[in-house]
What we know:
This is GntR family transcriptional regulator. It comes from Saccharibacillus sacchari. The protein is mainly alpha-helical. The protein is 68% helix and 4% strand. It is built from nine helices and two strands; from the N terminus they run αααββαααααα. The protein has a two-stranded antiparallel ribbon. It is globular and about 55 Å long. The two termini are 35 Å apart. The model has no long low-confidence stretch (mean pLDDT 91).
Amino acid sequence: MPIPAGFSTPNRLSAKQRAFQQLQEWIIDGTLRPGEKLNDAELAGALGVSRTPVREALQLLNAEGFVEMNPGVSTQVTEVDGEDITKILPPLAALQSLASELVATTIAPEQIEELRRLNAEFGEALGKGDTAYALKLDEEFHGAIVELTENSYISNTISMFQAHVRRLFFHNSIILTQDSIEDHELLLQAFERGDREEARLISRRNWLRAVDIYHAKSISRL
C-alpha cells in the first residue's frame, strides 16, 4: 500500500478530521487505488496518529461510500463506476440550483464581481488545459455561492457530493468544457437582475451538462 511522504495537514484539525481529509484526498486522486486493501496500522504510521482516529475516519469514509468495510475481513477502497455520475449530479444540481435561487436577491455587487474574477481565472485555466486547477476554481465559484446561503444543511450535503465529483473527475468520468464559462457569466447576470428563477435554471443546466457529455461519450464508444 504505497503512501506518500512529505504531505502536511492543518494542525487545528482533530486527529480524526486530519485522517479523514487526507485519506479522502488520497482516494479521490487515486493515490489509494480502487479496490486497494487498507491497513489501519500502516495508515496510522503514515499520518502520525494512533489507530483509533484512523478507524474512525475509515468509518466516516465507509458511510460516504469511499471505502467498504467488512469487519474481521478487510477494508478496501471502493471501485469507481462512471455511471455513478447519473446518481450524483442530479441531486447535486438540485442543491446547487437551490443555493443560486436563494442568494439571487441578496448577493452584493462586490460578491458578484469576485465570482466574475473567479470565472475569468477558471476560463484561463481551461484555455491552458490545466483542468485540475480549473476544477478547483469551479468548486470555489460554486462554493462561494453555497456559502452565501448560510445554510449548513445545504453546504454539508453538497460537500459530500462534491468529493465524489472530484473522484469521478480524476477517473475521467467528468469533463469540464468552455460552456461552463458562459453558464457562470449568465448566472452572474441573473444575480445582477435579482432573477431567482433564471438563476436556478442556469445553475441546474450547468451541473447537468456533464451527465449529457458522459452519455454522449458512452454512445460514441459503442
